[in-house]
# Entry
Amino acid sequence: MSTQIEHNELVRLPALLIGAISMVLCVLIACAGGYLSTQRGGDFNDGLNALIAIVPGVLLPTIILFMMPAKPAGVWAVPVLALTILRALIVMATGLVVHTIIGADKTIFFMTLLASLLVTLSIDVASVLFLIQKHAPAMHAGRESEGVC
Amino acid sequence: MAPSNDSQNRDRARQAKAWVLALDPIYGMIGFGALGFAIDRWVVGSGRTWMVALGITGLIVGFYRFIREAMALNKEQTRSSSRTDGNPDT
# Structure
């Protein structure tokens, strides 16, 4: 029989796995951006240059999440959401500076950034939902102990 | 052939500058965090206080450098722009 303590167990978010998946998908999106750029008569590097802004934006929250101590599954939603917002700010701020330095195709560059942010947001949400589903909240344990289930 | 090589070199130099600028906060955080980890491990002996404190310090220093560079770049761009008559405060 499960107890409330078991259901409120402290878990760690697989931060490195999430970071690695995000990074691979962002590289694929950057390559797709580069391909689209060549189709528009531009340079393949226009898409890849977006990685300069995306890489720190993915690395930084991953490192911070990795350093965080274990928490109950539901509590992870708050830091993950906060770091997703931080990532969006970092990527957009860095992207603006990088675009000023390099002068890449504006449409391709910023669409690649936004697509990458959307994909990483989806991965973050999915990871927290998966974690909550795997470690069900204490409400179920209470019902089970009362014989409701 | 020579102008093409020159243009490629200029592109690489700009890319390198952009990478350095973008990764400044990461380097700061990892460098200071590693220093904090060493202090926690070999000086204090337990805990993660120094690692977290110095990691955050590195992050702030990195962002400070990033913002300073970005503002310098913005001024440089404004100075060379014809729309602002070369006045960076415009």
